[in-house]
Amino acid sequence: MATDARRGRTRARGVSDGLTPKQSRIRAAALELSREAGLNVQDYGDLSGQQLTTFLEVALRELVRAHVTTAFAWSDEALGTIVAQYFFGKRSPIALWKTARYRRFNHYILENLGFRAKLNLVRDLGKLRTTTFRQLDHLNTVRNGLAHTFFPENLRSARPMWRNASLFTVEGMRAFTADMAIVRADLYRHYP
After folding, report:
1. What's the CA gap between 62 and 177, in Å, rounded?
2. Cα 108 to the chain's mean position, in Å?
3. Partners of 11 in the beta sheet?
4. pLDDT tens digits, residue range 79-118?
């Protein structure tokens, strides 16, 4: 093992990318998973013409679905944490998980409380700015469209749009990512 003095990282001899061994393993796994899932847009084999176009469009859709679903799942978890704080005080989630009372609360109440119900409860508690509430409400609608139909752009009310741009475009994804950063910052204000 050699140490990269600029980064303070230990790396295997002969590794020139500056990644630690753990980072190299994670990167290799991510690349392999992207191949298995058909999302490696740099490795499309002998596809050409319409087959290549279809492959790239499907990969793009899957990347967008993954990004939106991850933002949704994180937001759902954050809302659940705020609800738990209302009932259990501002103890850390790690400390709460050590109690049987909280585990029951989580398993039988929070897990059965949908996103919109958590969102409405947190709003009623006065814990959300109006813009954050609207963005989370819109995230819920968009996520449902992406999760429940293969061509969500054909839906009337749950189209994959963000700030009047399709989420399947760089413009739409940049707007979404920027807004979700603001939402995360707003929700982080409530973490112990």
Report:
1. 16
2. 24
3. 2
4. 999 999 999 998 888 889 999 999 999 999 999 999 999 9
Q: What six digits make up the tokens of 96?
A: 């709460």
Q: In the beta sheet, which residues pair with residue 162? A: 165
Q: How far is CA 84 from the centre of its chain?
A: 21
Tokens encoding 19:
């990644």
Question: pLDDT tens digits, residue range 118-147?
Answer: 999 999 999 999 999 999 999 999 999 999
* pTM of the entire predicted model: 0.81
What Å distances lie between residue 36 and 16, 29, 50, 60, 160, CA to CA?
26, 10, 21, 15, 26
pLDDT at 165 over 90: yes
Encoded amino acid at 30, one letter? A
Residue 93, Cβ density class (10 Å: 0-12 exposed, 13-18 middle, ≥19 buried): middle
Single-letter amino acid code for the residue at 142: V
